[in-house]
């Protein structure tokens, strides 16, 4: 994506600017044939005409301190998930914006321990197939140094009735559905549940198999992606990428961002995302951290990096994604990565949206003033939500809260 290509943007209102460190998702976006639907940091759901970006309809939040953090097409509707005291799932008619049904996950997760952001019930991810909506929701608690989670994975039918649930005391971070399977990634396992990946039968919710990197810490898995005969996993526990056969047997393991000596420090980065198809897999890593404490002046050589792997586990390309990526937008063998803060270097020139092919690597880049925090992709377009940011050591506000669209191919 170059500046010469046609781009359109529309404002989404005013929000407090992000700071140097990312503070969790507060926006979401989904693409439809005629619409772009955006979930906002103020809890509204706004549908814009895809061609003109004129507003078509709007659904408003019912409670304060609500952010829409997930959005997914569901049949001829759109499903969104909140971070809020209720942790609602809302489903709207795609064309009219009429509410169809909603469900408060706090009914099962419980009320927030505190009213602050990270303690609010949180819809971590939403996926859909032809007739089911799958939702992963969690709630966090802390008592001194003891952290705990309550979480539920739901399967809803089109009417909003619960078909089955899968409950744990771990923290789900991502879902993928296909071929009657639902893969669930758990990034923290501080309780009795000790499996970073669980593959469920999508029809019944029964456990097909479970897998774990076998590490000692609470950190387990950052993301999971289904392939025809297994799954590909981005492991938080050991900072590696795995290809598993159905049943959980390991086919290959690759070093993504394992502890590395840089200067006089040993640092690592978390592999946070993965998207895999028959042609290969793309992993995306996050921030650098030292082995001791949280502060470091060193940068891991593979932080904020997209890495493309062939089906046999050979690394075929790598490329920078600029800053922290909160999610991936995917369309077949293509991946869109939103680039947000690089809180250690605070390089504003790294903000932007990048598109990669699983086999070929970098395809396009779109630079932005603000940080990019949500993205969706299809064969014709990429759409992104940009947010303003103020870095703590600079004081300058960069960017605005807006919806941005661009042609995804020349």
From TrEMBL:
Gene3D superfamilies under this entry?
YVTN repeat-like/Quinoprotein amine dehydrogenase
What's the domain of life for this entry? Archaea
First and last residue of the signal peptide: none
Which Pfam families does the entry link to? PQQ_2
Q: List residues of the Pyrrolo-quinoline quinone repeat domain.
A: 27-109, 151-255
Q: Which InterPro entries match?
A: PQQ_rpt_dom, Quinoprotein_ADH-like_sf, WD40/YVTN_repeat-like_dom_sf
Where is region (Disordered) located?
1-21
Know the name of this protein?
Answer: PQQ-like domain-containing protein
């Amino acid at each position: 994506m170059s500046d010469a290509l046609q781009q359109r943007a529309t404002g989404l209102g005013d929000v407090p600017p992000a700071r140097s460190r990312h503070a969790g998702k507060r926006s979401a976006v989904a693409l439809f044939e005629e619409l772009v639907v955006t979930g906002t940091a103020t809890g509204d759901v706004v549908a814009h005409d895809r061609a003109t970006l004129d507003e078509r309809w709007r659904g408003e939040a019912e409670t304060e301190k609500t952010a829409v953090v997930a959005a997914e097409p569901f049949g001829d509707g759109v499903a969104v998930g909140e971070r809020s005291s209720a942790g609602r799932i809302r489903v709207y008619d795609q064309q009219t914006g009429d509410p169809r049904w909603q469900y408060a996950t706090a009914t099962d997760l419980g009320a927030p321990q505190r009213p602050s952001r990270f303690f609010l019930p949180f819809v971590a991810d939403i996926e859909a197939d032809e007739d089911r909506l799958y939702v992963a929701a969690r709630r966090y608690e802390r008592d001194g140094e003891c952290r705990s989670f309550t979480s539920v994975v739901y399967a809803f039918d089109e009417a909003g009735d619960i078909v089955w649930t899968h409950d744990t005391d771990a923290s789900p971070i991502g879902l993928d559905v296909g071929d009657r399977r639902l893969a669930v990634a758990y990034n923290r396992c501080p309780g009795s549940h000790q499996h970073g990946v669980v593959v469920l039968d999508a029809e019944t919710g029964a456990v097909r198999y479970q897998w774990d990197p076998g590490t000692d810490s609470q950190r387990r898995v950052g993301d999971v992606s289904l392939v025809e005969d297994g799954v590909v996993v981005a492991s938080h526990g050991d900072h590696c990428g795995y290809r598993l056969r159905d049943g959980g047997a390991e086919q290959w393991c690759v070093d993504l961002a394992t502890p590395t000596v840089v200067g006089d420090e040993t640092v690592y980065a978390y592999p946070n995302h993965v998207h895999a198809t028959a042609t290969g897999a793309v992993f995306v890593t996050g921030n650098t951290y030292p082995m001791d404490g949280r502060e470091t002046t060193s940068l891991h050589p593979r932080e904020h990096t997209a890495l493309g792997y062939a089906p046999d586990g050979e690394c075929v390309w790598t490329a920078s994604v600029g800053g922290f990526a909160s999610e991936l937008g995917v369309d077949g063998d293509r991946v869109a990565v939103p680039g947000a803060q690089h809180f250690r270097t605070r390089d504003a020139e790294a903000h932007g949206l990048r598109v990669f092919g699983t086999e070929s690597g970098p395809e396009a880049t779109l630079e932005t003033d603000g940080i990019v925090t949500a993205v969706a992709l299809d064969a014709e377009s990429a759409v992104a939500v940009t947010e303003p940011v103020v870095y703590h050591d600079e004081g300058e506000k960069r960017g605005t809260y807006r919806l941005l669209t661009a042609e995804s191919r020349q």
